[in-house]
Each structure stands twice: as structure tokens, then as C-alpha cells.
């Protein structure tokens, strides 16, 4: 496993492309490694990530747009149509996944308050082995990390929107040092891997207002993309072994 600085040599604030595996390859690899009994996905869209799960699965999305066979070998798939916060509030997940989600992929609304609430919701439905991953935590320029539409100059990547999900990385570092985290340099915009979730831990729920008030209006353009990369525990996901190493070697 290799620590990397993909921005080395790049001009400050310029666009740089991550070199790791594509996120769907990494997701497939993690399914093969973890062999989860239960899978939770927040944000399923057309089903490209959901189809990779073979186990009992729950998918949440307010506007599913499934156009492929997402069932595969799953024994059951529950598709809950609604925003994740509303679904978590109904406590349906406790009934559908009474032993928690072994593996969770969060790729829903790309605003920090939504990603934060998804982390809280996943933790409330976690077990001791849960591996939770969060998509799009590594914007490769500041424009794609804006909270709303901006006039984009990054022509080649202007359809990409990571929003400000990147804030999860510094928030977890500051407020949940007990969690084991690593960030994979998966293409196109990184994956945050979190382990050590504890459904009895209420720090994030208690500090929600304080933390989000502090972070909501911070712009990556001001925070500094170079600073984000410097502070991020980045792992080069150059192949399946590197992705597996993040889990198997207890790195996080
Ligand atoms: C980037 S797409 C997901 C892509 C999919 N995971 C994949 O890899 O193919 C984001 C999805 O999040 C969904 N979404 C938006 N707001 C949401 C919310 N509040 N809760 C859950 N999902 C949400 C959107 O409808 C959209 O389908």
C-alpha cells in the first residue's frame, strides 16, 4: 500500500486526475473481499453500483432510474423510494436489516449536511464489522465542489459534481478520531472508507448543529484543495490488492 500525493507537481488549484481504479471496480473488489451478508446503498440512480451486490440489499433513492438488471443473485432487494433522511427517520431499516449493514455505499445527495446525516444514519444501522464507503470525497478542482451551480471553466469535467462531501474527511478527523478511515484515489473523485462505526456513539448527532454551522459555508476554493489533499490519508488504489489491503491489513 502506497501513500501518494497525486497533486505533486500540479499547479495550485488546477485540475488533476486521480490515478486509482475506477470507483465501480473498487466497489466490486470490496464486495468480493468482504462477502457481506447485507448491503445498504444510498443513491442508486440507474443501478450501476447496486447491481454489484449479491447479498440481501436495501437501496434508497428519491428518484430511482433503474434501467438494468440490478437483481443479479441477490436473495432480496428492498428499494425504498425517498430521501435518505426521511427513510432513516421511519426506522424501517431496523426491520429490514436487524443485524445492521455489513457494507454500505453512500452516493446520495452531494451536500455536506446530507452526507453527514447519511453517516449518522449508516452508523445507527451498523454492526461491528461494517465497512462504509462514501463516494466523491476528493474533488479534483474547486469548481466541482461548489454547493450550487457555478459558471464552470473546467471544460473537460464540468458535468462532474462532487458538491461539498469532501468536508466529511476533516470533520471525521476532528470529531471522530476513533473511526478508522482511509481515502482511496479511485477515479474519478475518490472513495472514503470508514470502519469502527458504533451505533451507541452519539457524538455526531449531538454536535450536528455546531459542526454543520461551522462547515456549511466553507468553500474549497478558500479552504485550499492542496490543503485537503495534504490532510487526507490517501491510499493509491492502483489495483485490487491495494484496495483489499486497506481492509485486510487493518490500515483503517
Ligand atoms: C451520483 S447518483 C448515484 C450513482 C450510483 N451510486 C452509481 O454509482 O451508479 C446520486 C443519486 O442520489 C440520489 N439522491 C438525491 N438526493 C438523495 C437523497 N436525499 N437521499 C438519497 N439519494 C438521493 C439521486 O436521485 C441520484 O440517483
Q: Can you walk through the features of this model?
A:
With 252 residues, the protein is an alpha/beta fold. Helix content is 31%, strand content 17%. S-adenosylmethionine binds next to strand 2.
Topology:
Layout (H helix, E strand, L loop, with lengths): L22 H12 L3 E5 L13 E6 L15 E5 L2 H7 L1 H5 L4 E6 L5 H13 L1 E10 L32 H8 L4 E5 L6 E5 L7 H4 L1 H8 L4 H4 L1 H7 L2 E2 L4 H9 L4
Parallel strand pairs: 1-2, 1-4, 2-3, 4-5, 6-8
Antiparallel strand pairs: 5-7, 6-7
This protein binds S-adenosylmethionine.
CATH architecture: 3-Layer(aba) Sandwich
Count of beta strands: 8
Low-confidence stretches: 1-13
CATH C-level name: Alpha Beta
Sequence of secondary-structure elements: HEEEHHEHEHEEHHHHEH
Short recap of the structure:
This protein has ten helices and eight strands.
Amino acid at each position: 500500500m502506497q501513500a501518494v500525493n497525486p497533486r505533486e507537481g500540479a499547479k495550485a488549484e488546477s485540475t488533476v486526475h486521480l490515478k486509482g481504479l475506477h470507483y465501480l471496480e473498487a466497489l466490486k473488489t470490496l464486495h468480493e473481499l468482504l462477502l457481506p451478508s447485507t448491503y445498504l446503498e444510498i443513491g442508486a440512480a440507474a443501478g450501476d453500483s447496486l447491481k454489484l451486490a449479491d447479498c440481501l440489499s436495501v437501496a434508497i433513492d428519491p428518484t430511482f432510474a433503474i434501467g438494468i438488471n440490478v437483481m443479479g443473485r441477490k436473495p432480496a432487494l428492498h428499494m425504498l423510494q425517498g430521501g435518505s433522511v426521511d427513510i432513516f427517520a421511519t426506522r424501517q431499516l431496523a426491520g429490514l436489516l436487524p443485524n445492521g449493514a455489513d457494507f454500505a455505499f453512500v452516493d446520495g445527495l452531494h451536500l455536506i449536511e446530507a452526507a453527514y446525516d447519511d453517516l449518522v444514519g449508516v452508523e445507527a444501522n451498523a454492526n461491528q464489522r461494517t465497512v462504509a464507503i462514501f463516494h466523491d470525497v476528493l474533488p479534483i478542482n474547486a469548481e466541482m465542489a461548489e454547493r450550487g451551480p457555478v459558471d464552470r471553466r473546467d471544460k473537460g469535467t464540468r458535468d462532474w459534481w462532487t458538491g461539498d462531501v469532501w468536508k466529511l474527511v476533516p470533520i471525521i478527523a476532528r470529531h471522530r478520531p476513533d473511526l478508522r478511515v482511509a481515502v482511496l484515489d479511485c477515479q474519478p473523485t475518490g472513495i472514503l472508507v470508514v470502519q469502527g462505526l458504533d451505533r451507541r456513539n452519539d457524538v455526531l448527532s449531538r454536535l450536528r448543529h455546531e459542526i454543520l454551522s461551522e462547515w456549511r459555508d466553507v468553500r474549497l476554493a478558500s479552504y485550499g484543495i492542496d490543503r485537503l489533499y495534504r490532510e487526507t490519508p490517501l491510499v493509491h488504489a492502483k489495483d485490487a490488492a491495494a484496495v483489499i489491503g486497506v481492509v485486510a491489513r487493518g490500515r483503517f
